[in-house]
């Protein structure tokens, strides 16, 4: 994060309202809209922010599909091939990027079918989900949460990155999850998500977020 970056304090409720307004404004001019909410797992609550956008977007007249990148992880045999705590594998190989594009994001292109598979792999049971495809109608919005999403070539109309200072990231991660810290360091160094994202929200204190000013 550039040292010159300026952040505007905001309430959680106001953050949701501002994001919903921005997404709805994009969706007014799109057949379908894809939104990525990116944040370190267990340290930021990207899923909660994505969930909080659903009702406000529906009130604004848009059907919403909620998708989690956690339902597009690769099988355990691939994720844990080099052990359960390899940060490089976490960074490079945990997410089934091709599957997420194929089943969700590409069908929502302007020329896509609009028919998506909302979940592919049940990581807890390590087996495929048995879900039917669902249709995202014209004007619909897909809201996807996950970690390490940017820099993967995932197409989206709006990207939101939940940023933590290095010290806050270490504090917020449970001790038994800190083995993943090198993966997040690589992400910040190689991808620079705070420079790529359309919206950056500082969440050192999740009760008192702050939005980076343009």
From TrEMBL:
InterPro entries noted in UniProt: P-loop_NTPase (IPR027417)
Region of interest: Disordered: 195-214
Name of the protein this chain belongs to: Uridine kinase
Taxonomic path: Bacteria, Bacillati, Actinomycetota, Actinomycetes, Pseudonocardiales
């Amino acid at each position: 994060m550039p040292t010159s970056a300026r952040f505007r304090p905001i309430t959680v409720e106001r953050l949701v309202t501002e994001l919903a307004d921005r997404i709805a404004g994009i969706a007014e001019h799109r057949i379908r809209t894809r939104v990525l909410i990116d944040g370190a797992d267990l340290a930021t609550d990207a899923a909660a922010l994505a969930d909080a956008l659903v009702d406000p977007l529906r009130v604004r007249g848009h059907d919403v599909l909620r998708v989690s990148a956690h339902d597009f992880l690769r099988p355990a045999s691939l994720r844990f091939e080099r052990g359960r705590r390899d940060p490089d594998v976490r960074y490079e190989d945990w997410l089934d990027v091709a599957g997420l594009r194929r089943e969700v994001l590409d069908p929502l292109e302007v020329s896509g079918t609009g028919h998506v598979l909302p979940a592919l792999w049940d990581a807890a049971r390590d087996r495929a989900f048995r879900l039917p495809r669902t249709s995202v109608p014209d004007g619909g919005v897909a809201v996807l949460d996950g970690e390490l999403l940017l820099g993967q070539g995932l197409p989206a109309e709006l990207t939101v990155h939940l940023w933590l200072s290095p010290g806050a990231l270490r504090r917020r991660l449970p001790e038994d999850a800190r083995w993943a810290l090198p993966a997040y360091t690589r992400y910040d160094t190689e991808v620079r998500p705070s420079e790529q994202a359309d919206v950056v929200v500082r969440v050192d204190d999740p009760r008192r977020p702050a939005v980076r000013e343009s």
